[in-house]
Amino acid sequence: MDALQQRSVPFSAITNTSSCGTPSESGDSHQIKFTYKEGCTPTACACVILAILFVSLGAAAGVYFGLQFLDLGKRTERVYKGSFVIVGGDKYTSTLADTLSEEFQEKAQAYKARLDKLYNNSVYKNIYLQSEILALNKKDDDKNLIVHFNLHLSPDQSGLSAADLYVVLSEEVMRSRTGVFRDIKIDQDSIQIQERKPPVDDVLDRWVPRRQYPGYVEGLTTTPSSALPRIVPRQCSSLEVPFCNSLPYNTTSYPNIVGHNNISEVMSDIVMFRQILDFECYPLAQEFVCQLLQPDCEDDDIIMPCKDFCEDFWKSCKKLLPKKVSDKIDCSKFPKFSGYGTCHQKPGCSNELRALGMSDRLCDGVVDCKDSSDETNCDYCKPGQFICGDRQCVDKDRRCDLREDCLNGVDERNCMSISPSNWGTKESFYSYSSSGFLLYSDSGENARICSDNLNYSLPETRRDVILQSLAVSTCSALNFEVTENVEMRKDVNAVETDYVQLLDPLASSITFVQVSCDSQNVVYVKCGASACGLRPAHSARVARSYALNLPEGKFGAIHGQWPWHVALFKNGEYACDATLVSDDWILTSTACFESDPHAVWVARIGIIRLSSKSPFDQESRITGMVKSPIGSGVLSILKLEQSINGSDYVRPSCLPSHNYSLAGIPCNTLRWSVRKNHLFEVKLTITGNDCTDETLNNTSSRQKLICAVESDVMEDEECQGDEAEGSPLLCNINDKWYILGVSNQKVTCPSSNKQRRYHHTFEHVQWIRHTLESLRVH
């Protein structure tokens, strides 16, 4: 990685501030500025070496800041646990529950002998030691016998992984090369093998059949999909379907997405799939069908079409599909686009905009396509450049080069970020995780931070201070509230990963240098919840200049300006608005759901155009609704199926901590324009903090509301758009944005002097916080 050169990074490059400080030995500082200390004396170094030796032997009983150091001592063997289910030739009996019983001992010895014979005749016989049977049980009322075992191997394994041991067992089940299982039938899909290691949460080297659909992450168990059969390790091969030669890749893998195991099976159904194309039910049918038949293969794994691509095809063609095909397509199992390599997006988004008569959206400064293709062939932007998001692009190697090239400075943000263990280092810049591996960016290239020199060259207390400073500064720069944990972990899922490490951890400035990081020990950080009410990607200067160029007129939103705003879609159609108030909950009007609470509801967060899908916004299904018991229950909170990814473009608004006096406080609401479905801000003047809801006939039921009128009145103004149920009253208090009210009514083409009414959120805040805490998954 040529771009990752030795570079001294000033503190401001990470924390976006110019102040510096020296972290104390307690690690309380939130800044990265290390004071140089002299190296240890020979006596002190000897003491440190002895201390590390004692720790590796288990004499020490804990680690400062919860750090977890992997493989510090010499391991005498490596142990892999596994299991499989027998569906024929043997079955479970109740006496097997007692491991001291004679039946258990005999059967365990028999299965141990089978496994020993298998691996002693494999290519790994020189490093294989022995097996042991841990348990023989069953699942619920099922009589099928489950065999749980350990495999012991010598530590010198030359890169051996759980996947290699899985292949040996799976091949034997399929082909009976040695005949050790000839008298029994094993469910191949049930085979699981995982290396036993010190606990490292979600990064264990577990190996089950690879499956590409949402929810599957190497190291986690997942409910299998009927549309995507479990398979043995894949191998990439050349494309062979004649009408799929135009695909943007050259290799595929079997089984494909619709269950074909080889090209012969594909060709036997080829007429049926050609007929689907002849229906012309969807302009991109050929691209989608070809990706079903010949999915992309990368690193011996398939890359599926993205979920929204599947949904568009399904919506247009489902009534014409043969049952044999429709039964194999379940769009809920297709992955959502979240960055490089996650899935293949719908091709030709910019061409589709032209076909739909939306050419005015090309090169207008707003990204309408997930692949950004509508903004990458413009006078100001070329393919492959980094998009600043404001009619400006810069070369990718100018991102994180210590100089602001974008007007809004976004090219120098998040140069230290966090990526989950299952992400590569080529993931999208537009989001990051609250927990995962530290990621350093330099001149457009990304690398994980290797901890080898921290682990072996520093006193433990000093090392902990440095790690804590890195973690706290990164969490703070990414606008998370707190830092919960920092430790060293094994990067077991590394694929095409680059690494850097601190050149001199004790120097007064940070200098990273590229390393190979043979141990793959990297820095893992866990931050708390996203800090509320901040707009890190927003630039008021850019927003004002952009608003002047919009054909609708005034105050058109730009990406990142209202990162907490949510559009709710019912069965695919826009219904109303909401506001993100935590990483996995949104606040809206109960009236939005009164018509059809059992429909399929989807939240799109951070969007500024209803009919566009940009890489900046995020999407999640609604899985639950809780109605407020306060007053007449006009407000509800909705649970997102999955928490948001950290982002400068999607983050929560603040809830009020007390009943603010709104006199002189700048407040806005948001509405959608008529012609382009674009989000607009409406500046408001508060006219009353306790006006009455006149729509309620019963005087005793009337609630005190916040009333406001539009501040900027324009004479003879045309209809600017609608303010939906759930639209927020947003106010800026001490440089943070709070949602102080929620509208319970849809207002169509409101006049500038029309009074708006908002229900106080403060009255519901205690209930909201209690509910979120009660339903939090720990």
UniProtKB/TrEMBL annotation:
It comes from the Eukaryota. The keyword Hydrolase does not apply. SMART domains: FRI (SM00063), LDLa (SM00192), Tryp_SPc (SM00020). GO terms for biological process: proteolysis. Residues 550-773 form the Peptidase S1 domain. GO terms for molecular function: serine-type endopeptidase activity. It is found in: Cell membrane; Membrane. Residues 236-352 form the FZ domain. The lineage of its organism: Eukaryota, Metazoa, Ecdysozoa, Arthropoda, Chelicerata. The chain crosses the membrane at residues 43-67. Residues 76-198 form the SEA domain. The keyword Disulfide bond applies. One of its GO terms (cellular component) is plasma membrane. It comes from Araneus ventricosus (Orbweaver spider). Disulfide bonds join 236-297, 244-290, 363-378, 381-393, 388-406, 400-415. Pfam families: Fz, Ldl_recept_a, SEA, Trypsin. Keywords: Disulfide bond, Membrane, Signal-anchor, Transmembrane, Transmembrane helix. It is a single-pass membrane protein; Single-pass type II membrane protein. This is Atrial natriuretic peptide-converting enzyme.
